Amino acid sequence: MSMTTDRRPVATLKARLSTDPWRAFGLGLLAALALPPFYLLPLLWFVVPALLRSLARAGGWRRAIWIGWCFGFGFNLLGLFWVTEPILIMARQFWWAIPFAAPGLAAATACYLMLPALAVYWIRPVRLTAAAAMVVMFAGVMVMANLAQQFLFTGFPWNFWGADWAIPGRLGVIMMQPAAYGGIFVLTWLTIIAAGLPLLGRRGWIGSAVVMLLWAGFGLARTAGGRAADTDLTVAMIQPDFAVPGSFTQPALQARWQRDLAMTREALAAAGAGPKVVVWPETASPALLQTDAAARAAIAGIAGTTPVLAGSFRFGATGKVYNSLIAVDGPGPAVAWYDKWKLVPFGEYTPKWIPFKITPGSGFSPGPGPRTLHVPGIPPVGPLICYESIFSGEIVDKKDRPAWMLNISDNAWFGDSTGPHQDFATTRLRAVEEGLPLAVDTNSGISAMIGPYGTVRASLGLDRRGILVHRLPVALPATTYAKFGLTTAGILSFYSVAVAVILLIVSITL
């Protein structure tokens, strides 16, 4: 007597397990091509519906989570491959980390895609209205996932879909304007809604076109008054293009110092008459400007009482080390300083939940948080140091709103990879969100003066030594996002989920 077993269901399950995750991984790679500096945004009108279809037919919640993670892994693997660049620079010491850095970080950040994937599977379509519910649910829970990514495990708010719209030129300025009301999060939400509606078929494509027209119309209307006027303050930024990690021998440090001073002299000459300020990028000064009177006197010998805002290290009273911006306006004591408070995990410090040390010594200590500096001769300024500029809604002291923002950075560690371009695009959004002009001064580029609508007034590209001089634009009144910050993102996420649930209920009862 023979027995046969129908293996078709098992074979079908194995086939789906093998194809859907790989398809999701490929879709994630395609979605990453919409990020800066590629900006292939039309791909999202294929990616989002395809991903939602895969989640709807997942066959189980565990597989939906797996598909979401595979999509996130592909998306972040391509979007974050630039993190390997600093390791390659110090390959003799950290060669072992090369195979793990980008894949490991991509695997961790991919976890944030699991919750939106699960939500979509739960609300998978029965009728057309439920398909619409899937799109709205995915958009709302993605905003929730972005908020989690900004705060959990020290926070790493990178590769948000809203940054796709920081396109160079006028088009980017137009499409970024909703950020003044909901930050980068509303741009992510709008992107998913517009790109996901084609899931509904012909009517969905029409709806997507309407969304895009309204979006562009809003941007045109908000910027119709033209660019903001300029103040009488000239900001002169030096871009010294120091090599990294650089030598710490006395001759090398002295050569670095002399370049700082020589470029300061050039910057002052280029700035001409009238009120001005000179800016040095992150850690540009090899001297400890807060305590080194001779160094301040050397600067004063060139700049006089013109304020110089310089990246420098600072030692606190208890011996803690800070990555700081020091303001000097003569040979006397520093008039103000700001300590970086959003430190780079594993680069500037080792998180407490890691059982072994990675950063040398004790690493840097975090400052107290956003602060407005009041330096004689210049409008109140809100400093940011490098990594801090990616934290939407957390960069300005709301009780003491500045007249402009200044981001000093050192992107030389990332070469001419996608990293500096992505960082600049995300940083540019901060100007729109806060309604404030933003000066960006980096060691090796991209340095720029950005107006409060996100318009790049002037810039210096990557891997160049030079001086960037431009008048400081006038700030706009505080935006809705500047007033309410991340609360707007939370409200957007909550109401999106509520609307999605209502649409699902309607589809069931019809």
UniProtKB/TrEMBL annotation:
<dbReference type="Pfam" id="PF00795">
    <property type="entry name" value="CN_hydrolase"/>
</dbReference>
<dbReference type="Pfam" id="PF20154">
    <property type="entry name" value="LNT_N"/>
</dbReference>
<dbReference type="InterPro" id="IPR045378">
    <property type="entry name" value="LNT_N"/>
</dbReference>
<feature type="transmembrane region" description="Helical">
    <location>
        <begin position="64"/>
        <end position="83"/>
    </location>
</feature>
<keyword id="KW-0812">Transmembrane</keyword>
<dbReference type="InterPro" id="IPR036526">
    <property type="entry name" value="C-N_Hydrolase_sf"/>
</dbReference>
<feature type="domain" description="CN hydrolase">
    <location>
        <begin position="233"/>
        <end position="474"/>
    </location>
</feature>
<keyword id="KW-1003">Cell membrane</keyword>
<feature type="transmembrane region" description="Helical">
    <location>
        <begin position="204"/>
        <end position="221"/>
    </location>
</feature>
<dbReference type="GO" id="GO:0016410">
    <property type="term" value="F:N-acyltransferase activity"/>
</dbReference>
<dbReference type="GO" id="GO:0042158">
    <property type="term" value="P:lipoprotein biosynthetic process"/>
</dbReference>
<feature type="transmembrane region" description="Helical">
    <location>
        <begin position="95"/>
        <end position="123"/>
    </location>
</feature>
<keyword id="KW-0012">Acyltransferase</keyword>
<keyword id="KW-0472">Membrane</keyword>
<feature type="transmembrane region" description="Helical">
    <location>
        <begin position="130"/>
        <end position="153"/>
    </location>
</feature>
<comment type="similarity">
    <text>Belongs to the CN hydrolase family. Apolipoprotein N-acyltransferase subfamily.</text>
</comment>
<protein>
    <recommendedName>
        <fullName>Apolipoprotein N-acyltransferase</fullName>
        <ecNumber>2.3.1.269</ecNumber>
    </recommendedName>
</protein>
<feature type="transmembrane region" description="Helical">
    <location>
        <begin position="484"/>
        <end position="506"/>
    </location>
</feature>
<feature type="transmembrane region" description="Helical">
    <location>
        <begin position="24"/>
        <end position="52"/>
    </location>
</feature>
<comment type="function">
    <text>Catalyzes the phospholipid dependent N-acylation of the N-terminal cysteine of apolipoprotein, the last step in lipoprotein maturation.</text>
</comment>
<comment type="pathway">
    <text>Protein modification; lipoprotein biosynthesis (N-acyl transfer).</text>
</comment>
<dbReference type="InterPro" id="IPR003010">
    <property type="entry name" value="C-N_Hydrolase"/>
</dbReference>
<keyword id="KW-0808">Transferase</keyword>
<dbReference type="InterPro" id="IPR004563">
    <property type="entry name" value="Apolipo_AcylTrfase"/>
</dbReference>
<dbReference type="GO" id="GO:0005886">
    <property type="term" value="C:plasma membrane"/>
</dbReference>
<feature type="transmembrane region" description="Helical">
    <location>
        <begin position="173"/>
        <end position="197"/>
    </location>
</feature>
<keyword id="KW-1133">Transmembrane helix</keyword>
